[in-house]
Amino acid sequence: MATKKSPAADLSALVATKGTAVPTKDMPTRAVAPAAASEGSGQPLNFRVPSEFRRRFKTYAAQHDMKLNELLFKAFEDYARRHP
Known about the structure:
Blueprint: H1 34-39, H2 51-63, H3 68-82
């Protein structure tokens, strides 16, 4: 005895087309770092840091709703201002 299969569910509405996705209405926004906005895509900056520093840096950024590069920009600008 053959069983009749039900038709497949139409999931096409769940797939976003690149460049057309929009955030939900209740999603909080983040401020764009001034240097990041002017740089466009930017360049990678890779270096190693101790794991404890990395944890503290990421924790601070998250607690203050900042991107990691935004915190780095602000920290460098402050240091450069204090040590010309």
